[in-house]
Amino acid sequence: MDYLAINKLLIRDKTILQSIINSSDFQDDLLETIVVRKGDRIIQDNVQHIYIIEEGLIAKMFNHNKNIEKDICQAFLSEADVIWSNQFISDSKVSFEPLSEAVLKKIDANNFFNVLATHPFFTDVLIEALNRSEELAELYAKQFQYELQDRILMLFEQLGTQISQQKFILPKGLDAHYIAAYCGVSRVSVNRILRELRGIKLLEKNNKGSLEFRKHKII
């Protein structure tokens, strides 16, 4: 693929990495589509592959061996985010857990970089991934200047699908465990806030069984 062809892809597609993945240089025999479901885990220390998220939300978890209440969710990864192989990060305490069903593209790490290294935008791909990681880390850190209720509402707005100016539908599988791990509190505290939000009609189930929340402006 030549330089001009890549530029056309960059204009058309969402990210540089996704543009190259969608190009003819990644043949079908290199990429495998897999589905992971709630309860599955990708353990970073064991990963010999690169995973690119196509659909769904995946929580990046720092796991506490003995106490699940002390697990930390550093970020929620979404479409076009990348789970790197253990060639780059080797930490047995980091796992990636889908909130519900998620669809991933899986490729052997060596094949991935052999193909990617031939492109003039190889460096841009790595910079893009670093920038995305910094963006998620900044979101995680920023929340702690607010009270817990506001932190939860900010998370809902971050992950929810907006259906009107004030209403969002929450993703399936976003339960008290992941909210507590992200906000740095206990599930008891999260459940208390969720009850309060239901009490003041900021959080309700719609007729399809999905949770909706009404946007709350932080003063």
List the helices and strands and how they pair.
Layout: H1 3-12, H2 16-21, E1 32-36, E2 42-43, E3 49-55, E4 58-62, E5 72-77, E6 82-83, E7 94-98, E8 102-108, H3 109-116, H4 122-142, H5 148-159, E9 161-162, E10 167-169, H6 176-183, H7 187-199, E11 203-205, E12 211-214
Antiparallel strand pairs: 1-8, 2-7, 3-6, 3-8, 4-5, 4-7, 9-10, 10-12, 11-12
Helix pairs in contact: 6-7
Commentary on this structure:
- The structure is a single chain.
- The protein has about 220 residues and is of the alpha+beta class.
- It has two domains: about 5-125, Jelly Rolls (Sandwich); about 145-215, Winged helix-like DNA-binding domain superfamily/Winged helix DNA-binding domain (Arc Repressor Mutant, subunit A).
- Helices cover about 35% and strands about 25% of the residues.
- It has helices spanning about 5-10, 15-20, 110-115, 120-140, 150-160, 175-185, 185-200; strands at about 30-35, 40-45, 50-55, 60, 70-75, 80-85, 95-100, 100-110, 160, 165-170, 205, 210-215.
- A hairpin with a 4-residue loop joins strand 9 (about 160) and strand 10.
- Helix 6 crosses helix 7.
- It is globular and about 55 Å long.
- InterPro entries: cNMP-bd_dom_sf, RmlC-like_jellyroll, WH_DNA-bd_sf.
- Keywords: Activator.
- This is Crp/Fnr family transcriptional regulator.
